[in-house]
Amino acid sequence: MPLSLWVSLAAVCAMGAMSPGPSLALVLRHTLGGGRVPGMAAALAHALGVGFYALLTVWGLGALIVRFPSLFQGIIWAGAGYLAWLGIKSLRAGRGAMLAASAAETTRVQAVREGFLVALGNPKLILFFVALLSQFVTPETSLAGKAVIVATAMLIDGGWYVLVAMSLSHSRVLPWLQARAHWIHRLTGVMLLGLALRVALGPLG
Question: Whole-number mean pLDDT of the chain?
Fold first, then answer.
């Protein structure tokens, strides 16, 4: 995969990981309830779930493109619509939405279990990944290229939420984020709407 194309892949994966949602709330809860280690455990387990969905997606995309081009195009449009819906939802989010979490006591085992299940329990990830990875997967994509795509999605997701857990383990960070949550939501919403438009326009070169 050319470096320029990989940079585009990394950018859209980062955009997906950074968008506020249940995954962020999960890492917040385990970090506040158990400290840095449970928060990081939840982050890494979530990344495994993301990798599983990314693997399913890259395995099926090439065959779907060849056998059912019309169906594939319909899924792409549905994915673009979903990204746009996420963007609008972020733009309309309240000042503290999805940046608040309870500090109930938690353990590493709970964090790992819930991190993995939150990812697997979100079937919208399939739609999200089809929308994203359709820009990078073709019937000619090699096994190594698909492995790079899956690894990139996992590493960026896990790396982002580990960074969140490490940052939030300092008590001053969360209030700072909560005070600026409306700007975080707005920025995320604009980026997601831009990504939806990019998906709708077709594959990257």
Answer: 76
| pLDDT of 14 above 80 | yes
How far is 6 from 149, CA to CA, in rounded Å?
A: 8
Rounded-to-integer distance, Cα 42 and Cα 32, Å = 12
Among candidate residues 182, 193, 191, 181, the one with its CA nearest the CA of residue 28: 181
pLDDT beyond 90 at 6 = no
Full domain range(s) for residue 178: 3-201
**Closest to 146 measured CA to CA, from 58, 48, 53:** 58
Q: What are the counts of helices (DSSP H) followed by strands (DSSP E) for the chain?
A: 9, 0
Query: How many domains would you assign to the chain?
Result: 1
CA angle 155, 138, 160 (to 5 degrees): 15
Residue keyed to tokens 């990812």: 119
202, two tokens: 């077709």
CA dihedral 103, 105, 110, 116 (to 10 degrees): 0
DSSP string, 45-56: HHHHHHHHHHHH
Sign of the alpha-carbon dihedral angle for 73, 196, 160, 29: negative
- Residues making up the chain, counted from first to last: 205
pTM for the structure as a whole: 0.69
